[in-house]
Design a protein that fits this description.
Layout (H helix, E strand, L loop, with lengths): L1 H11 L3 H8 L3 H6 L3 H11 L8 H8 L2 H5 L3 H6 L9 H12 L4 H7 L9 H14 L11 H12 L9 H11 L3 E5 L10 E6 L2 E7 L5 H17 L6 E3 L8 H18 L2 H10 L5 H11 L3 H10 L17
Parallel strand pairs: 1-3
Antiparallel strand pairs: 2-3, 2-4
Helix pairs in contact: 2-9, 4-8, 11-12, 11-13, 13-14
């Protein structure tokens, strides 16, 4: 078992933390590797899916068939990522292997950010599509705080980026900071996710859907994810999606910190106060004036005023928002 773990880490550049969370067992249990449960979990996640199963194991997995069916099975089959002819008695093991988890505990540990949504299996599968496209880094990542902050401020400006492909520019800017920005098409079986952030080995990854959104919401999602790189070095993961909530005090605290960073990066408190003091929220010239004064995209100002309830969500000023 020890040799298998060492070979896996060497081949995949997988961190020990990721390995433990994917298997769903603490470090001591995995490194000892003496229990049948740990060996089975390792086989589920990283072993040969064609290994013959015992009748006891098959019976144990049958109760998880309803859980496995909630994955976008047909879509994954059409992509060639799981066998096209998989039967119910093999479906659970197939999904464990595809997701690289050692069981339900491993799934909940590693993809815990999806559990507070109505579609955790679909969102987790979407994240997994991105993971499969990222080449694992062999070296530890050290964030350059000043470079990240400088590039985030650059992205919010309008002077240099007006009319340019914001997604392409954001990808280049983040790559220069050692952060991978990845676009993955969402599954039609769940609402479109806003953004996900996770680590692939030592590589921090921000994953966004290929569907269009406006530039203000796009930037806010990117800034939110970047905050986790800057402030939460213990391999924090997150999923930004509609109606996603968390009952965890720690998760709420981390998300609040990331949300505040994104809000402040988009528009500082001083800038927001100055904007609100203007009082002429529904006038285009007000947005244009402060956009030039603060050197920010006008859509950011419109979005902030809508968040504050100063202007309606359905407004002629939405013309300032650019689809990206």
């Amino acid at each position: 078992m020890r040799d298998s773990i060492k070979q896996l880490q060497k081949r995949e550049h997988i961190t020990q933390d990721e390995l433990f969370r994917r298997l769903g067992y603490p470090r001591s249990s995995v490194m000892e590797g003496t229990s049948a449960e740990v060996k089975t979990a390792f086989d589920f996640a990283f072993g040969n899916s064609k290994v013959r199963k015992s009748s006891r194991e098959t019976k144990e997995l049958e109760k998880y068939i309803p859980w496995a069916r909630k994955f976008p099975v047909r879509a994954l089959q059409s992509m060639g990522l799981i066998p096209a002819n998989v039967k119910d008695d093999d479906l659970v093991r197939t999904m464990f292997r595809f997701m690289n988890v050692g069981g339900i505990a491993g799934f909940e540990n590693y993809y815990g950010a999806t559990l507070q949504t109505a579609n955790p299996q679909t969102y987790a599968a979407w994240i997994r599509l991105g993971e499969l496209r990222i080449e694992r880094s062999t070296t530890e990542y050290t964030p350059d705080r000043e470079a990240i902050l400088s590039n985030m401020k650059f992205l919010r400006t309008n002077v240099f980026l007006h009319g340019q492909d914001l997604r392409k520019v954001a990808r280049e800017v983040l790559n220069n900071c050692g952060i991978e920005l990845l676009e993955v098409e969402p599954f039609i079986t769940a609402p479109t996710p806003t953004c996900a952030f996770y680590w692939r080995g030592y590589q921090p990854v921000i994953q966004i859907p290929t569907t269009k959104t406006d530039d203000a919401k796009f930037l806010k999602a990117i800034f939110h994810a970047a905050a986790h790189v800057l402030y939460h070095p213990i391999r924090t993961t997150c999923l930004q999606a509609a109606y996603a909530k968390s009952d965890s005090v720690t998760a709420n605290m981390l998300e609040r910190e990331a949300e505040k960073f994104a809000q402040d990066m988009m528009l500082s408190e001083a800038e927001e106060c100055e904007l609100i003091c203007c009082g002429r929220f529904n006038e285009r010239r007000c947005i244009q004036y402060f956009s030039g004064l603060f050197h920010v995209r006008p859509s950011i100002l419109v979005e902030r005023l809508q968040q504050q309830g100063k202007i309606k969500r359905v407004s002629p000023l939405n013309d300032f928002k650019i689809a990206v």
